[in-house]
Amino acid sequence: MRNGELLRLAVAEGFSVFLTADQGIEFEQNLEGLRIGVVVIRAASNRMEHLLPLVEEMLAAIRSVPAGSLLRVGA
Hints:
Layout: H1 3-12, E1 17-20, H2 25-28, E2 37-42, H3 48-51, H4 55-64, E3 70-74
Parallel strand pairs: 1-2, 2-3
């Protein structure tokens, strides 16, 4: 499933946040006006050892990202 489809489905299912490692999502999708916030994870890879140190930052971003906005976490 492509990001655009997945974003629309997430909104339709009532999700408030979309968590992704897609670094270019804001250039590929029009996030403005969506009823969902997007959190982009910036890590060396999607391996657990690179993601675990970012968990607290991810949780804070998930709690605070407004709908239609994008926040980045990590390096």
